[in-house]
């Protein structure tokens, strides 16, 4: 597979430390360009689920042939059970594989910032820390993950110990596009930013809202809070001046309001990571710079 100009960093999964999970930012679906994230399927390094989904050649029957095994159930794969109709919610809830080197930030956090399809999520083997029997990804795949259930979750977001992912989920409708402009890195996963994860998930606007990333310079009132209270209107969002680094004249909010910021446009973004720290709300967080060559154009 061609790395193209969208090559990003990656991480490895504990259960299979020798196989890298390489991330690539999405490109626009134009002129047959369907390069996408290259989250690799173990043992199928040349053909990724993401690639096939993007190109339209990943069919249910293909998924049924997958041999990604559920830990402790080596004879029956997730894909097999999904296709045969015997994969029950309780079975999916037994999934429990952890993300390596990211002990504080769970799959739940990453799910907040992506657009994976249920099928794609089902084949993932990432554990949520401290909840080994019931993972968010599993529940999403099985259709039993409701807002009220998520509200009971207590997975914490780094540096925001009083506000849980679930709290934010129950209190907003932050769109994926808006989230994509965030530059908060996931701790212990310095090569994969929120923007990266956004290009690799499924989340609905309301689900993404469970993130507790604050708007810079507005530390007391989050986007989710404003949306919930009814004081954050589309026109209000248009007036926001949260700038994308390297694109100071055109904000994400501006583009959203003008209708020129489409999902495919966001997928063309090429976030370049740097290991630079900056004071943010009284604490130090990592920041990123946008690769000038691929920065947003008005």
UniProtKB/TrEMBL annotation:
It comes from the Eukaryota. This is Uncharacterized protein.
């Amino acid at each position: 597979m061609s790395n193209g100009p969208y090559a990003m960093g990656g991480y490895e999964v504990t259960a299979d430390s020798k196989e890298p999970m390489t991330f690539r930012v999405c490109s626009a679906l134009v002129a047959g360009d369907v390069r996408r994230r290259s989250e690799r399927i173990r043992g199928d390094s040349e053909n990724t689920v993401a690639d096939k989904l993007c190109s339209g050649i990943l069919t249910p029957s293909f998924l049924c042939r997958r041999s990604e095994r559920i830990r402790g159930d080596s004879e029956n794969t997730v894909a097999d059970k999904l296709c045969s109709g015997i994969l029950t919610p309780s079975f999916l809830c037994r999934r429990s594989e952890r993300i390596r080197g990211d002990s504080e930030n769970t799959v739940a956090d990453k799910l907040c910032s992506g657009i994976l399809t249920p099928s794609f999520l089902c084949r993932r083997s990432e554990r949520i820390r401290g909840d080994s029997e019931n993972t968010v990804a599993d529940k999403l795949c099985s259709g039993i993950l409701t807002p009220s259930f998520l509200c009971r979750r207590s997975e914490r977001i780094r540096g925001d110990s009083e506000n849980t992912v679930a709290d934010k989920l129950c209190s907003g409708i932050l769109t994926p596009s808006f989230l994509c402009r965030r530059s908060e890195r996931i701790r212990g996963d310095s090569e994969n930013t929120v923007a990266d994860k956004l290009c690799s998930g499924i989340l609905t606007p309301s689900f993404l809202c469970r993130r507790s990333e604050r708007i810079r310079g507005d530390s007391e009132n989050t986007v989710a809070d404003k949306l919930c209270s009814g004081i954050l209107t589309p026109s209000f969002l248009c007036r926001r001046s949260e700038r994308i680094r390297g694109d100071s004249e055109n904000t994400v909010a501006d583009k959203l309001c003008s209708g020129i910021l489409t999902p495919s446009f966001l997928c063309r973004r090429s976030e370049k990571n740097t290991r630079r720290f900056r004071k943010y709300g009284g604490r130090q967080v990592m920041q990123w710079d946008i690769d000038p060559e691929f920065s947003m154009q008005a």
